[in-house]
Amino acid sequence: MIATQQHWIYHERQEAQLCGQHALNNLVQQHAFSPGDLAEIAFQLDEMELHYMAQNNEGGVSSKDYLKRMAEGSGNVDESGNFSIEVLRSALLSRFNLALPHLKQQGVGDKNDVTELDGFICNRASHWFAIRKINGRFYNLDSTIERPEIISHFNLAVEMEALQSAGFSVFCVVDSLPPPCSSEAMMDLGLPQYWWNEEDLISGKSHVTTRADNSWTKVGSGRRLDGKQPAGGNCGDSKHVSEMTEEEMLQAALAASMEQSIPSSYDRDYELTEEPAEGAPGAVKIQFRLPDGTRAVRRFNSSDPVGVIYAFVANKCSEQSIELRAGFPPKDICTQKRFTIAESNLAGEMVHGRYA
After folding, report:
1. Where is this region: Disordered (predicted)?
2. Annotated catalytic residue: which of 7, 22, 31, 142?
3. CATH number for the domain formed by residue range(s) 8-173
């Protein structure tokens, strides 16, 4: 008897306030974007907006609007991890070359029957969720619901009207999305605990088979993400990766990274110089967004090597290995350590830090 091909639906569940990330990943049916990926895009968009504001003829970096924006922080991601529509649009465009226009944008919804579109991202207040056509059926992939829910073609138009009447903004993908999962090999594109068997969803079974139910996915359980044996030496006592939440996996990866990390060289190669006084000859001011999200402003001598900037950030971040970016668009400045701040044109710049 020849086994029929199984199809799987990818449905990430809510972690923290990262519904925007989950909506994108559910839309493309793979774990394509991490919180760090979207945060980097948010920072680049912030820098672009600040760059334009700094070029205005009404005060530049000293204008009220610029200073207010600096004080308010990012306009594209908040502290809880809620991303703006521009971040989601930029992510989808840069990774998959797909636009995400508003459904009511002229020339979009009025020329297409909604059932002819492949996918939608909906938003109200701080919540984002995706609706996606998979193998000819539409699924509600809201990360706050337990499992994917089928939406009939007949009900889709009604659902869209109801959402917009309730105050939701609906964005759509006009071009073709990446293909859905049609083989177990494709399941490696997503996190194992978020795959659902399509046949079970269609049949309405009370228990729907997930990838975690398959015994073959448990091979290797008992090992930590860094490859080491768990404490106590009993492999069966540890939690398998497929059973972890995204937050637990992130924490495990960070812990492994900390264990394997070695001290960076910039704190040994460069000594933090004394901060020059305000208005002193050659004094320049640099703004920082540190890896923990806090901001700082510090004066340096324009003749100081860029490595001194690394020494300052290392002092603020417990000497963990740091990657620093600056400019427009932001670029890694590690190759400029031995150049002076003046030579690297970093005076007055915003420097972004993140743990390497």
Report:
1. 218-239
2. 142
3. 3.90.70.40
